[in-house]
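User
Please review the sequence:
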Amino acid sequence: MLILIAFSAGSILGAAHFDLLPEAIELAREHYEESFAYIYITMGFIFFFFIERFVYWYHGHGHETDISVKTADRAATKSFVYLNLIGDGIHNFVDGMIIAVSFLTGLSVGLAATAAVIFHELPQEMGDYGILIFGGFNRRKALLLNFVVALAVIVGGISGVLLIETVEQLSGVLIALSAGGFIYLAASELIPELQEEKSFKKSVVQFALFVLGIALIWSLGIIFPE
């Protein structure tokens, strides 16, 4: 599981730095000052930190009088799972808006945008599945939750059609918030899990898969630019 989490951390961090951040900054330059993108990215980081603390206090610390410390620790460890679901939901919602607007522009543009989103999402969805498994869900529940969160694409698509005039500005804000959340998830939750590994050989494998996750997102961004 820790090996799978290493790839997940790399793919999510790569998605934030090579996919979401550049897109948020580009949209900021078009619709408002570039500095606003960094403000929203920071707000996303803070928001996910707040959510993680809330989940911990409600599911972990808040119930320590009723359950054992071991159970509380396990509940606290699972808090990053909810962060990932929120971040992935926002990301999928934005992808749906992008696809819808692209098809309104033209069939060829829509197909190209859809293909780009699919190839960008595949490694990240693999990482998301790994995070859910590591967080304590069984395979069936992990797949179900991944599918439910993926439905945010449809909601985003409908919103993109209804809000065509403001969708680019709105998507820029959501992308920036999602980027901040993914950075927090990878740096504050997943990487510390990897640092618990004491075996040198396993640590080397984890580092290699972590870099592979980053490199895969980066390479797909070059091959299939959005």
About this structure: Residues 2-31 form the longest helix (30 residues). The chain has a mean pLDDT of 76. The chain has one domain: 2-223. Residues 2-223 form one domain.
